[in-house]
Amino acid sequence: MYGNQNREQKSNVSAYLKWGGVAVVAILLLTVVFSGIYIIDPGYRGVKVVLGKVSQKSYVNGVGFKMPLISSMVPVDVRTRIIADSTETYTSDVQLAQIDYVLTYNINPENVYLLYEQVGLNYEPKLINNHLFGAIKDVVGQIQAQVLVSRRDSAREVILQQLKERVDKQFIQNVGFELKDITYSHRFETAIEDKVIADQKAQEAINNTRRVTEEAEQKRIVAEAEANAMKVKAAALAENKKLVEYEAVQKWDGKLPNYMMGETVPFINLGNQK
Q1: Is residue 3 part of a domain?
Q2: Could you report the per-residue pLDDT of 71-123, keeping only the tens digit for each?
């Protein structure tokens, strides 16, 4: 009796172990199968690595299957990258300028496998930063500090053009660059402000001097014209005394004087005679 019970217990234990083993194997198989499924999110490309070797293809976003255990799928962000940062460099007159900028670019989605294979995911210092800082240094270094602010747009265009020429186009595309701000030391900015104020005052003084000179010249011209007119008139009076009589008649108000002497035309007041 006891022997039968022991055999039944051993049989039950064997059955449990058997089904437990099957369950473990099933779980392992499911784990292996599911580990072969990959998902690439929108805005990413995939790089498949099989036993340490990069597949020569960029995988688009979506769901796919890879060899379990021996392969992996590395997602690479190909969305527009925006970098807002600043750097310091010297102008042509050796003034230290802080340049605040915004850089935008995209990774070429077709070549992400080459980027991963040849450069790695830490590509920014190698492919972007060195070229960016070099372009900023070259352009700003050719412009004086005081002029740089007013020539910001042209400086930005030259920096962008140089950057586009320097970056590796098989990896980097759609490069954009904005020069947000240029700042100097407080001491230098104060000196610039003082100079601007001094220039404005100097120009104001020049304008005042010019105005006074023009007004004096106008008065001189008017006085000269009046003097010439008087000379002409005096000469005409000297040559023709009849003109005096003519002007006297022109100025006569219609009232006859009681008495006149001299060589002028006599006027006799006959108003009281009958």
Answers
A1: no
A2: 889 999 999 999 999 999 999 988 999 999 999 999 999 999 999 999 999 99
Buried b (16+ CB within 10 A) or exposed e, 140-158: beebebbebbeeeeebbeb
How is residue 230 annotated by DSSP?
Answer: H
70 and 85 share a domain? no
Q: Chain centroid to CA 220: how far?
A: 53
Range of the domain at 23: 16-77
Q: Among candidates 141, 168, 139, which has minimal Cα distance to 154? A: 139
Residue, of 191 and 62, whose pLDDT is higher: 62
Same domain, 43 and 116: no
Considering only CA atoms, which of 128, 36, 28 is closest in space to residue 82?
A: 128
pTM over 0.90: no
* pLDDT attached to residue 155: 95
Q: What is the crossing angle of helices 152-166 and 130-140, to 10°?
A: 140
Q: Do residues 29 and 98 both lie within one domain?
A: no
Q: If 0-12 CB within 10 Å is exposed, 13-18 middle and 19+ buried, where does residue 196 land?
A: exposed
Provide the 3-class DSSP secondary structure of residue 182.
strand
